[in-house]
Specification:
about 30% strand, Protein Transport Mog1p, Chain A
């Protein structure tokens, strides 16, 4: 029989552990977020959605992905009025909550919350005092909004690649460049060259490919469109020939876009556009990251390209693009992509 004093002690200990178990249980009982990659739910009033403020947000989300041979939208967009935002809809994977209230806000801001109603969920709050200020804000920050959700989806893909990836590609990246790289597990074929490898899924209808190569770093002038595309064409002509001697991979320079980006806090040069086989009918989209290996003073390029005739290519090119973000240069630590918008804790949400 437990004496009264000991009984009280056990009750106190139980009370101390209760918040811990309650927290764990709360996390475990949340459902997994619903929806497919790049699907978006916008929670905004029906009438506001049709007015200029709502149309401005729709136009941001409805933009085409650059560098594809045919128009393909960045996101699949759904909209619901706040009155219909219930337990079925609130577990969507990507949500934008629009709140326009002159009494509550003095300026327009964006903040995001993770896993509020479901696991692996992101909710972006856009709060503004007036519709006109909201319209101006989303128009001026359109690229930031697009990049934010693209990086959210890239982080989800990276987590999947950590669990399931091509061991062959990882071993070649390590042995040839002393780098870490995670590629889709369906990639199993390869070809090696000098400071170069090409790996492929070898699918006849939806082929995804990852290339990796290096060249000496010659200073900041290394990163401009003309220099990067010249290097790409010389490397690909040598290493990816066609079926005939006069056939080789080349770049459609007029349909290629370049920009500096940040990857893991460091400078990177993103190139995306179209490739084609000279004197042949093959072609498709590609995307690459060029980064400086400061340990060995050279540029490391990792590229994904797709060949999928008569198919939509958005999902395929984004699948290989996610692999590019897994590249870890020598002595570089693994980390999640920065999202570029401040995060708020769930406890900081507005109280009713």
């Amino acid at each position: 029989m437990i004496k009264p004093m000991k009984k009280i002690k056990y009750l106190i200990l139980g009370a101390c552990f209760l918040p811990f178990f309650t927290s764990c249980e709360s996390s475990l009982t949340k459902p997994t977020a619903s929806g497919r990659p790049y699907e978006m739910l916008v929670v905004v009033g029906d009438s506001l959605w049709q007015r200029p403020a709502g149309r401005a947000l729709f136009d941001v989300l409805d933009t085409d992905i650059p560098g594809l041979p045919q128009p393909e939208r960045s996101f699949r967009i759904s909209q619901t009025d706040p009155a219909r935002f219930n337990q079925i809809l609130n577990i969507f994977r990507n949500i934008i909550l629009v709140d326009i209230n002159k009494k509550e806000y003095t300026q327009t801001k964006m903040r995001y919350v993770r896993d509020e109603y479901a696991r692996s969920q992101i909710i972006l709050h856009i709060q503004s005092p007036t519709e006109e200020e909201f319209r101006q804000f989303v128009s001026e920050h359109s690229q930031q909004i697009i990049d934010f959700f693209v990086r959210v989806e890239m982080n989800r893909l990276i987590k999947q690649l950590k669990d399931k990836h091509s061991v062959m590609v990882s071993e070649m990246a390590k042995n040839m460049f002393d780098c870490e790289l995670l590629a889709p597990d369906e990639i199993q074929s390869y070809k090696k060259g000098k400071d170069f490898f090409w790996t492929s899924s070898n699918s006849a209808t939806a082929m995804v490919n990852i290339c990796m190569y290096s060249y000496p770093y010659e200073g900041p002038q290394t990163f401009n469109k003309e220099y990067v595309l010249h290097k790409r064409d010389s490397v690909m002509q040598k290493n990816i020939p066609g079926s005939q001697p006069n056939m080789y991979m080349a770049t459609d320079t007029m349909a290629t876009f370049c920009r500096p980006i940040s990857v893991k806090g460091s400078y990177a040069y993103e190139t995306r556009g179209l490739w084609y086989m000279e004197n042949d009918g093959m072609g498709g989209p590609f995307v690459s990251h060029s980064r400086v290996d400061t340990v060995n003073n050279k540029v490391i390029v990792v590229e994904g390209f797709v060949f999928a005739p008569e198919k939509m290519k958005r999902g395929l090119i984004r699948r290989v693009e996610g692999a590019l973000y897994t590249l870890n240069l020598p002595k570089e630590k693994v980390q999640e992509l920065e999202l570029g918008i401040p995060e708020i804790e769930i406890s900081a949400k507005k109280q009713d």
